[in-house]
Amino acid sequence: MADCLFCRIVAGEIPSATVLETPRVLVFRDISPKAPTHLLAIPKDHHVTIAELAGADPALAGELLAAAGRAAEAEGLDGGYRLIANTGDDSGWEVRHVHVHVLGGEPLGPLLAR
Questions:
Q1: How far apart are alpha carbons 57 and 55 in whole angstroms?
Q2: What are the positions of the active site (predicted)?
């Protein structure tokens, strides 16, 4: 999609700090990190939500999660890490292209602050 930020990254129109790449998945550093290590894992094909991706291509959904795990390992996140996939406006998502946040590098604390 021409107006999708992540599709433009996949197409090479916008640079990214790539951590891991497979034929169908790209993992790169978030430009506004929320933890010492903050990566984004995306499918190269455009899908909007994780549920839509899992329904359309379950194998790719598995590849996406596997790539996120391999990238976390490559980054040395041996103490643990958090995976987050936001969906819908209430989640605070900013890019409507499915992506999994990989956060780690320090104790992350509670998932939500109330």
A1: 6
A2: 99
